[in-house]
Write a structure and sequence with these properties.
It comes from Chromobacterium sinusclupearum. This is Acyl carrier protein. This protein has 81 residues and is mainly alpha-helical. The protein has a single domain, classed as Orthogonal Bundle (Non-ribosomal Peptide Synthetase Peptidyl Carrier Protein, Chain A), CATH 1.10.1200. The protein contains four helices and no strands.
């Protein structure tokens, strides 16, 4: 469980960095955080570094997806890989 918390925290910090803000809420949808399509590409590239090999086409990313949900999806992908 601590690995999940670590990846979520790292994902939160990187998202804040991408958006050039101090912090972001992991339970708020990406659209509400201000992430646009270019930011999503940056985020996916970062996720590939953080989680290892991922299949972006298998991710369900919408403006309502939270970082917590994204982290869960990526963790599940790693377990089935």
């Amino acid at each position: 469980m601590s690995e999940t918390l670590n990846t979520l925290e790292t994902l939160r910090k990187e998202t804040a960095k991408i958006l050039n803000v101090e912090t972001v809420d992991t339970n708020v949808g990406l659209g509400e955080l201000g992430i646009d399509s270019l930011n999503v590409v940056e985020l996916i590239v970062f996720c590939e570094q953080l989680y290892g090999s991922i299949d972006p086409e298998q991710l369900n990313i919408t403006q309502y997806t939270t970082l917590e949900q994204l982290d869960t999806q990526l963790q599940e992908q790693q377990q089935t890989a």
